[in-house]
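FIELD: query
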Amino acid sequence: MRLIRFLSACFLALAWLPVQAQDASAARLTQLLQQADTLTARFSQLSLDASGTQLQETAGEIALKRPGQFRWHTDEPMEQLLVSDGKKVWLYDPDLEQVTIQTLDQRLTHTPALLLSGDVSQISENFAISHKESSGVVDFTLQPKGNDTLFDSLRLSFRNGVINDMQLIDSVGQRTNILFNSVKMNEPLAAGLFTFEIPEGADVIAE
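FIELD: result
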């Protein structure tokens, strides 16, 4: 009987550990994300297929402001501008002279930018989270809990409390690596950064 009780206690303890670890990881990630009410940075983005072959390489600038406002500008020659005021999203392609307007999907698993600019209280509802920390570097791995997602896993890495890079892997193994540099946090940002005026003559697609 003592053995049975001992084994039962061990089983319950082991079952509880992953939950505790996830809660600790979610709390640590929330702590780091909440440090920045606003954020600006340069970024470089590299997309690879499942075999590691390079598909695309771009660079640009981002600006984020809680809650849910972001601006993602990709440099030429593949220029695009993605802007959200927290309710709507505008995607502008200068080459095509086309603007696509959508309602912002508030699900973190459908709008990765919301992980950095949105309501961090939703993170543990949307993801199973684990992390490891060493010498000022904290790496988080986020696995979506739902099946209807844009990616299968997401990694966020912080160095000395500042976002450094992120990697998304989709269902076919394609990887998107985004490296941030010249990061500035909690500086005043003009409200106009997060609104978009449709250029004269541009085609508009409302979804």
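FIELD: remark
DSSP finds three helices and twelve strands in the chain.
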